[in-house]
Write a structure and sequence with these properties.
alpha/beta; 259 residues; Rossmann fold; six-stranded mixed beta sheet; single chain
């Protein structure tokens, strides 16, 4: 049995051809689970976050007691030199790497105190992820890659996946494999995948890092456009200070702290 069969049987997704109103593009079960305008109330809170790694007998401290708050609907860019700790901070905020000390609170929940199954449900239903290397499943088509988060959560989001691929300009490429798509097209698929569950937050790690300047600019405008329209909270890691100016706020990481 192939990857798709292991996920949800052998029935593959197919676009019905139906089109919905733009404002309903990302509704899940008829409701939008995030605010309709930017809120001053923090959606993400990090308190005294410490993260370190062992290198032989040496302990390398990556994050040194970081405190931060991100409001619902905010577009935050994490900047800094290579090795400063910005990606580690994003992964920690995103529920992917547990801090040695400190805590991360999302929507009032201390995420690393939740049971593992509840953490997984939270990541699947309320967070979207975009990575520099795309991480598309090579044996699945663009459409099949986009619907995976829904299938994992027990939902058939094929119609929304089709609408998202249309919105990112890939309506005619949805049946293509990743190897048949350019780097920019693969990142567009990744953006659609990150939004298919209508998450409250999208975390993006160097989303333009593998793209040329033209494709990188298009991808960033696309991502920011979705975040603006849907008031999705956006946390982006980048080394490009010019890109970071497009957000609401830039946090610069240096030597494991925010400066």
């Amino acid at each position: 049995m192939g990857v798709w069969g292991r996920l949800r049987g052998d029935r593959r997704p197919h676009c019905s051809g139906l089109r919905r109103d733009r404002e309903k593009l990302l509704e899940v079960d008829g409701s939008v689970p995030y605010p309709t305008r930017v809120s001053k109330e923090p959606l993400i809170v990090g308190e005294e976050i410490h993260r370190s790694y062992s290198l032989g007998r040496k302990e390398i401290e990556i994050l040194r007691g970081i405190d931060l708050e991100v409001g619902a609907g905010e577009r935050i860019f994490l900047c800094g030199a290579s090795g400063a700790g910005k990606t580690t901070l994003m992964y920690t905020l995103a529920g992917l790497e547990r801090p040695q000390r400190g805590r991360v609170v999302i929507g009032g929940r201390d995420i690393y105190q939740l049971p593992r199954r509840e953490q997984a449900r939270l990541r699947n239903s309320e967070m979207g992820y975009i990575f520099q290397n795309y991480y598309l499943m090579p044996e699945l088509t663009a459409l099949e890659n986009v619907v995976i988060p829904g299938r994992i959560g027990g939902k058939d989001l094929t119609d929304r996946a089709c609408e998202l691929l249309d919105a990112v300009g890939l309506a005619e490429r949805r049946d293509h494999l990743p190897t048949e798509l350019s780097g920019g097209e693969q990142q567009r698929v990744a953006i659609a995948r990150s939004l298919v569950n209508a998450p409250a937050i999208v975390f993006a790690d160097e989303p333009t890092g593998n793209l040329d300047s033209r494709n990188g600019s298009e991808i960033m405008k696309l991502l920011l456009g979705f975040a603006e329209e849907l008031t999705t909270t956006l946390v982006v890691v980048t080394h490009d200070t010019d890109l970071a100016k497009l957000g609401d706020r830039t946090l610069t990481i240096k030597d494991g702290t925010i400066v």
